[in-house]
Structures are given as structure tokens and as C-alpha cells.
């Protein structure tokens, strides 16, 4: 076995390894933090919503205290991200995994209707956020001599959606960022992959369903596209992320995996 392949192999499960999950206070991020924790990892959970992050932590604490670290930061703000990762470096010698889940949705209208603020904020959170986190986390990943990064894009990173030009552009950018990082970091044993969830039953999906005519149009489109007939659950996505963090994904980097109930197939 080559040194590179050996380096990319995780031990069974995530025991003894540390994984940073952003957006861990809710939905897919919370399910991912819990799944990594169940697989044995020490979980560093980052979010801007510290109160809800506390609920994630309490759920883990009810099972077994001690293997989690809470970090407060807005991923859109490079200074806050740098400070959070500096705090993390004081608690950990190395990181094995980074999962970039933090994101915001919402319909902003077509390009003429989308304000500069909406465009800027969507790109800052949904795309630059992952860039900021990866930039600050790389030293800790390198310290472990291998690692995995999983970026959460969207079905709207693969295909267009109504009234969401900023979200679609940011999520398509997440796929480009994933592939560029896969090229740059393969020879360090750092594998970088991307998941594209389709509709998943979370607070974000519930909020998008309250957005008037555009959401009704998108819901009608989704009804015919969801081949499995229902939105997914957060742990459906967390399970695929766990696979990408785990040993069986050792030959995957730069991959884009749809977890969308068939949405992007038709
Ligand atoms: N739910 C879906 O249908 C769906 C579909 C495709 C893609 N996604 C993507 O999955 C990811 C998670 O979505 P979800 O449905 O679990 O949403 P959610 O709203 O339930 O959770 C998002 C989390 O990210 C956090 N967050 C938002 N902005 C942040 C910021 N600037 N800094 C730090 N944390 C921030 C929120 O506080 C929240 O805890 C997002 O990137 C989203 O775009 C979701």
C-alpha cells in the first residue's frame, strides 16, 4: 500500500479523532455532530446560534460528557473564524475532519430583485464561510498527517431553482471549491468531497415553504422530482457524511454526492 493511501485510511469509526462541524446547532449540522460523536469522534461544534448549539451539546452530554467543544462564530466573518479555530487549537493537537454545513437559504427573487445585501450575505455564508473555515483549519488537519473535508452544497448547486440566484451561485461555487481543494491537498492525504442534499426536513426547509408564490412553484416542481416521494431526514445526510469521513471512502476525493431522493435525476 502506498504511503498516501495508508495516510488516507481512517481507523474503523472515528474513535480518537476530532471532527469540526459547522452549523451544528440545527438540522443537518446537528445530525452530523451527533453521528460523528456516536462514531467515537471528539466533536468541535461551531455555530453562530450559541443557545441552540447548547441544545446539541446537551443531547450529547446526556449520552456521555467530555467529547465535545462548542465554538461560537459567524463563518462569514474571517476574524471570528480565525479566533474560534485558535481557541480550538488550544484544546486539540490535530483535527481529522472538517464538515462545512453552516448555510442560509431563502428566496431572494430573480437577479433584478435580489438586493446587493442578499447577494453578499448568501455568498459570504454559503461559500466564503467554507473557505474561511478550511483556511484556518488546514494547519490542524496537517498536524494529524491526514484528513477529510466534507462540504455541504445543495441540489441547487447542480441545477437551477426559482428565485435563488445567490444561493444557486454559492452552492455551485461550493462544488468548485471542493474540486480545487481535492487537487491541492491529495498528496497531503487530505481528501475533500461534497454532498448535495435535496429537500431535507429541517428548519430551513420549513422556512422556505413559507415564502409565497415562488416557494409554491418550487414545491410543485419538487413534488415531481422527488423520486422517493418525500423530503429526506437530517440523519440521511449525516450518514453519507459519516461514510465520506470513514475508511470506506479512502479512494474518494473531489466527489460530488447527491443525497436528494432522486431530485437531480430527472
Ligand atoms: N434542508 C434542506 O432542504 C437543504 C437542501 C440542500 C442543502 N441544504 C444545506 O444544508 C446545510 C444545512 O441546512 P439545514 O437545512 O440543516 O439548515 P438549518 O437552518 O436547520 O441549520 C443551519 C445551521 O447553520 C447555522 N448558521 C447559519 N448561518 C451561519 C453563519 N453565518 N455562521 C455559523 N453558523 C451559521 C444556523 O445557526 C443553523 O444552526 C446548509 O448549507 C443548506 O444550504 C439544506
Whole-number mean pLDDT: 92
Structural class: alpha/beta
Distance between the terminal alpha carbons, to the nearest Å? Answer: 40 Å
State the low-pLDDT regions, or none: 1-11
Question: What is the radius of gyration?
Answer: 18 Å
The quaternary structure here is: single chain
Percent range for β-strand residues:
5-15%
Major sheet: 7 strands, parallel
User: Please, how many domains?
Assistant: 1
Order of helices and strands: HEHEHEHEHEHEHHHE
Helix content estimate: 40-55%
Describe the structure.
With 266 residues, the chain is an alpha/beta fold. The protein has one domain (3-259): Rossmann fold, CATH 3.40.50.720. The chain has 9 helices and 7 strands. It has helices spanning 3-8, 27-38, 50-63, 78-91, 116-144, 165-185, 203-208, 213-225, 234-245; strands spanning 18-22, 42-47, 68-72, 97-100, 147-152, 190-197, 256-259. Strands 3-2-1-4-5-6-7 form a 7-stranded parallel β-sheet, sandwiched between helices. Strand 1, helix 2 (27-38) and strand 2 form a beta-alpha-beta unit. Helix 5 (116-144) packs parallel to helix 6. It starts with a helix and ends in a 7-residue tail after the last strand. The model is unreliable at 1-11 (pLDDT under 50).
Amino acid at each position: 500500500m502506498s504511503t498516501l493511501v495508508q495516510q488516507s485510511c481512517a481507523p474503523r469509526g472515528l474513535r480518537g479523532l476530532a471532527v469540526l462541524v459547522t452549523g451544528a446547532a440545527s438540522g443537518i449540522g446537528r445530525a452530523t455532530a451527533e453521528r460523528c460523536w456516536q462514531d467515537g469522534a471528539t466533536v468541535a461544534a461551531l455555530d453562530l446560534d450559541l443557545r441552540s448549539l447548547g441544545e446539541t451539546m446537551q443531547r450529547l452530554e446526556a449520552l456521555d460528557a467530555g467529547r465535545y467543544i462548542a465554538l461560537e462564530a459567524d463563518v462569514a466573518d474571517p476574524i471570528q473564524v480565525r479566533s474560534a479555530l485558535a481557541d480550538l487549537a488550544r484544546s486539540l493537537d490535530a483535527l481529522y475532519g472538517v464538515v462545512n454545513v453552516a448555510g442560509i437559504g431563502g428566496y431572494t427573487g430573480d437577479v433584478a430583485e435580489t438586493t446587493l445585501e442578499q447577494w453578499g450575505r448568501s455568498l459570504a455564508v454559503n461559500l466564503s464561510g467554507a473557505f474561511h473555515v478550511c483556511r484556518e483549519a488546514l494547519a490542524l488537519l496537517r498536524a494529524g498527517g491526514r484528513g477529510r473535508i466534507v462540504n455541504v452544497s445543495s441540489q441547487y448547486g447542480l441545477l437551477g431553482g426559482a428565485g435563488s440566484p445567490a444561493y444557486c451561485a454559492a452552492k455551485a461555487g461550493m462544488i468548485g471549491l471542493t474540486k480545487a481543494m481535492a487537487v491541492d491537498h491529495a498528496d497531503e492525504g487530505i481528501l475533500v468531497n461534497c454532498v448535495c442534499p435535496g429537500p431535507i426536513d429541517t428548519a430551513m426547509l420549513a422556512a422556505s415553504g413559507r415564502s409565497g408564490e415562488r416557494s409554491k412553484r418550487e414545491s410543485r416542481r419538487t413534488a415531481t422530482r422527488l423520486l422517493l416521494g418525500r423530503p429526506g431526514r437530517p440523519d440521511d445526510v449525516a450518514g453519507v457524511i459519516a461514510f465520506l469521513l470513514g475508511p470506506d471512502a479512502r479512494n474518494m476525493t473531489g466527489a460530488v454526492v447527491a443525497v436528494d431522493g432522486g431530485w437531480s435525476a430527472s
